[in-house]
Amino acid sequence: MYDEEERRGEIVDVHGNITNAERLDEFLSHINSGVEDRIRITTYTIEGDPINYDFTFDGQYVKYKYDNSRDKFGIKNVRSTTCMKMSKLTSHTMVEYKLDECFGENKEIGEQFSFVLNLDR
């Protein structure tokens, strides 16, 4: 079920088992270099439903879209916002990616975004 997303280069998180995580660093590097890029993170609920996090860097801003419309047990919600940048915080046990300086409609979803890679695994 998750192989198709992995083949497309999406970052896939199945209950903490993450594939294609290196794309986050590539995306961050492209942001810092001003190179346009896009990535998708797909996480899966306990029931196996996908939740998509789409990021598009247009050379100036990071556009972020949260989409849980395929989650059969959640309240359907598709929202977007724009942020100035993405940051990476590293400790000895984890790496966390966050969006910074979000603005406009729905800016709170950008400010709340966090994707964590546990280095203990």
From TrEMBL:
InterPro entries: DUF4362 (IPR025372). It comes from the Bacteria. This is DUF4362 domain-containing protein. The lineage of its organism: Bacteria, Bacillati, Bacillota, Bacilli, Bacillales.
